[in-house]
Design a protein that fits this description.
Thiol Ester Dehydrase, Chain A; 5-stranded antiparallel β-sheet; two-stranded antiparallel ribbon; 3 helices; globular
C-alpha cells in the first residue's frame, strides 16, 4: 500500500443544507468511505472481519477541524492514511481537499473488539501486519 490513499467523491444534494453547504455530520461518512478503501488496499476485507473472524473496529474517538465549507456538486478528495497503531487500536488521519484547498482535517481512532461480546482484543496479525506496513510507509515520507 502507498502511504496515502485518495478517495474521490462528488458532493450530493442530500449531503447539504438549504444553503448548499455540506452538513458537518456528512464528513464522517466521507471519512468512513476513505477508511474502508484504505483497509481494502491493505488487503483487509472489513465485511469478512465481522462475519468470518468475529471482530469489529468501531470508532472510539473522533477529532475533526472544519476549515472551509464543501458545497453541493464539489469534487472532493479524501486523503487517508494510518497515523498510529496500537496493540488493540488504529488511528486513521484525514484531509478533505477541494483541489489544492484544505477543507477539513480529522483523526479517527478505532478499537478492536470481539463480536458479539464487545470485549477489547488485540488486533490479529492479519490486520496488524498490513496496517504496520502502511504506517511505516507513512513515517518514511
Amino acid at each position: 500500500m502507498t502511504e496515502l490513499m485518495r478517495h474521490r467523491l462528488r458532493v450530493g444534494y442530500a449531503d447539504t443544507d438549504q444553503g448548499g453547504i455540506v452538513h458537518h455530520s456528512v464528513y464522517f461518512r466521507y471519512l468512513e468511505q476513505a477508511r474502508v478503501e484504505v483497509l481494502r488496499e491493505c488487503g483487509i476485507d472489513y465485511r469478512s472481519l465481522e462475519y468470518d473472524d468475529k471482530f469489529a473496529l468501531p470508532v472510539v474517538d473522533a477529532q475533526i477541524k472544519y476549515r472551509r465549507p464543501a458545497l453541493f456538486d464539489d469534487v472532493l478528495d479524501v486523503e487517508c492514511w494510518v497515523g498510529q497503531l496500537g496493540r488493540a487500536s488504529v488511528r486513521f488521519d484525514y484531509r478533505v481537499m477541494r483541489g489544492d484547498e484544505l477543507l477539513t482535517e480529522a483523526k479517527v481512532m478505532l478499537a478492536c473488539i470481539e463480536l458479539p461480546s464487545g470485549k477489547l482484543r488485540s488486533l490479529p496479525p492479519s490486520v496488524r501486519e498490513p496496517l504496520h506496513v502502511a504506517l511505516q510507509a507513512t513515517l518514511a515520507t
